[in-house]
Amino acid sequence: MNLVRMTSSLLLLSSILGSSAFATTITPLDLSQQVKKADLILHIKIKLIDKEVENLSDLPWQTYAFEVVETLLGDPKTLPPSDNEKSQGLPTFSILGGGDLTLEGAPILKPFNEEKGQEWSGEYIIMLYKPLSSDLGKSYDDPIIGFNQGVYMVQNNTVSTLEGNPTKLEDADKDLKTFKNKIITLRGGK
Known about the structure:
Blueprint: H1 3-17, H2 31-37, E1 40-53, E2 60-73, E3 92-98, E4 101-102, E5 123-128, E6 151-155, E7 158-161, H3 176-186
Antiparallel strand pairs: 1-2, 1-5, 2-3, 3-4, 5-6, 6-7
């Protein structure tokens, strides 16, 4: 078992047993800090959510297969491709947890929803760490910057934070185009 997966197992076990010895501390990050930490910043639509159990650790994972709407930073091809027949070849990222087990502070994302008037869209701006190697699609318990801080829901061209995300957005930054332009400016683009 590699060190990352062993650490994941210990963290999950400690949360199940109620131990605070391995408690997760999440440092609030502003948008500028999130952008600087990110290897990939993508506007995506979640197409499929797969729950799987990792053979080496027996821990559940949520694997999100997604369509890239726009790449703001990085190359989504550095992410592992889906091997599910419904989402074959789409890029994916995985978050530890699923079913009755969830990683504290990790986001729970929903699939793309084309119906109007729904409370969610399944469309997000995500800021991710890239996998440590091409063989390690699950090299982080949660590859999203700041656990849930580097993910923003997009609905009707409006950007909002997920519940529990301490990032404050200015009213002007809630417009999708303005938000994307701010990200590009923060990473040194024009």
